[in-house]
Write a structure and sequence with these properties.
The chain folds into two domains: about 5-140 and about 160-355, Up-down Bundle (Fumarase C, Chain A, domain 2), CATH 1.20.200.10; about 360-440, Fumarase/aspartase (C-terminal domain) (Ribonucleotide Reductase Protein R1, domain 1), CATH 1.10.40.30. By secondary structure, it is mostly helical. The protein starts with about 25 loop residues before the first helix and ends with a helix. The chain is elongated, with a radius of gyration of 29 Å. It is built from 16 helices and four strands.
């Protein structure tokens, strides 16, 4: 098996990370760092830190000259970071030593690597934003279409009270809606430029350190943190945390669908399902299983990220290396979950007849709570609860329905609509429609 499912020729379509895959390659990493070097030179030239002619030459070269990532492996192995080898290769490719000497002026490897990473994370968040909007529309369509379709609610894996399939879908969608709303703030709080020099003091830039950092941030379209964050991994951890919540929410949806599609329930039919190598009757919930597996992986990776978020002193090689090994996989798997969900949701087909069987097969006990409230109109609530609990035990023992036995026990009690699931869903239909309306207003 390949080191990553996202790089595997066998598994890459199963765990399809879409366009995000192009952001986490050696070529993309090198390209982002060269762009940072060019933008840094341009900002330094404008402030007179390096000759303006050299700055223009370096900036233009950063846009035109390709750097082969394979030539950086020996340097990375020796130095623990690819930037020294990158700077050397860039200077050589420029073939203009009088200008090349000003490349990387005053910066440190972490400035270039972290800022380049932020450029790629910015693109990833754009992909996530587009994917989220598409997914929310698909969920809203399902919620609106099935707002009034009764379905058994379950708590602790047991029948609870009636909900609707539309409200259940809205339950998947609302947290995603919240994540989308958080994106603007996340970008401001986390997509930062890094320019602090060797030990995070910016001493190499003198009194122009703040102006230079601000100019670099403006040139790259990133935020200016107003300080060094070499040993503060908060920006990266906030992005990783947001992506983890995305995968987690989609994992919950996948897990719910696995349960709803299992043979003993059959409440949902998937638009696409997998087959068995030996059992012809099988229709395996492959896409929901992918969502759950990805969520588990991302949650685990985020735990590793939290551990790497405690770098020692001004820079910690081991913590930084851990971040490199972990963050790309977290990003790709979170986006793969979004890609999978977008392929899954439009094809969901709720099975109304199977959902109705849950109500008839439960002997009416899904309406026990409603019965206790109806009975509480004529007696204290605790007494009503005890009476219905005792009657429920009789129902289970006799094999009869709660409705039949309630009518016999309380013949004068108005039970109209009590045992009709469509009349006992509370605000479930309204919840589904509120979600659909909120998405439509985006």
């Amino acid at each position: 098996m390949a080191g990553s499912v996202h790089d595997s020729t066998i598994y890459s379509k199963l765990f399809d990370c879409g366009e995000a895959g192009r952001l986490f390659t050696d070529s993309a990493e090198v390209r982002s760092m060269v762009i940072v070097e060019g933008a840094l030179a341009k900002a330094q030239g404008a402030l007179g830190i390096i000759p303006e002619l050299s700055a223009k030459f370096i900036h233009r070269a950063s846009l035109e000259l390709p750097i082969d990532p394979s030539g950086l492996n020996a340097g990375a192995a020796k130095n623990g970071v690819p930037v020294p080898g990158l700077v050397s290769a860039f200077r050589k490719a420029m073939e203009a030593p009088e200008h090349a000497q000003f490349v990387h002026w005053g910066a440190t490897s972490q400035d270039i690597a972290d800022t380049g990473q932020m450029l790629r994370l910015r693109q990833l968040l754009l992909l996530c934003e587009d994917g989220l909007k598409t997914l929310l529309k698909a969920l809203a369509t399902q919620a609106e279409a099935h707002a009034d379709l009764p379905m058994a609610g379950r708590t602790y894996g047991q029948f609870a009270t009636p909900v609707s399939f539309g409200s259940h879908v809205a339950g998947w969608g609302w947290p995603l809606f919240d994540l989308l709303a958080e994106l603007e703030g996340l970008r401001k709080s986390s997509l930062w430029v890094s320019l602090s020099g060797a030990a995070g003091t910016g001493a190499e830039f003198g009194e122009q350190r703040d102006a230079l950092r601000a100019a670099l941030a403006e040139g790259l379209g990133l935020g200016d943190p107003g300080r060094s964050w070499h040993a503060d991994r908060g920006p990266v951890l906030r992005i990783a945390g947001w992506l983890t919540r995305l995968a987690q929410i989609l994992g919950k949806m996948g897990d719910d669908l696995i349960l709803m599609a299992q043979s003993s329930a059959g409440e949902v039919r998937l638009g696409a399902s997998g087959g068995s190598s030996t059992m012809p009757q099988k229709q395996n919930p492959v896409q929901p299983s992918v969502l759950l597996a990805l969520a588990r992986q991302v949650i685990g990776l985020n735990a590793i990220m939290q551990g790497a978020g405690m770098p020692r002193q001004e820079r910690d090689g081991a913590a930084w290396f851990t971040e490199w090994m972990t963050l790309p996989q977290l990003c790709l798997s979170a986006h793969a979950a979004l890609v999978t969900a977008n392929a899954l949701v439009p094809g969901l087909k709720p099975q109304g007849e199977k959902m109705a069987e849950a109500f008839s097969g439960s002997q009416g006990l899904l309406h026990a709570e409603a019965l206790s409230f109806r009975l509480a109109r004529s007696m204290p609530r605790p007494e009503a609860q005890d009476a219905v609990k005792a009657l429920a035990l009789e129902v289970l023992a006799s094999g009869r329905t709660l409705g039949e036995m309630a009518r016999e026990k309380w013949p004068d009690l108005d039970l109209s609509g009590l045992f009709a699931p469509e009349e006992q869903m509370g605000d479930a239909p309204a919840t589904a429609r509120r979600f659909a309306a909120a998405v439509a207003a985006l």
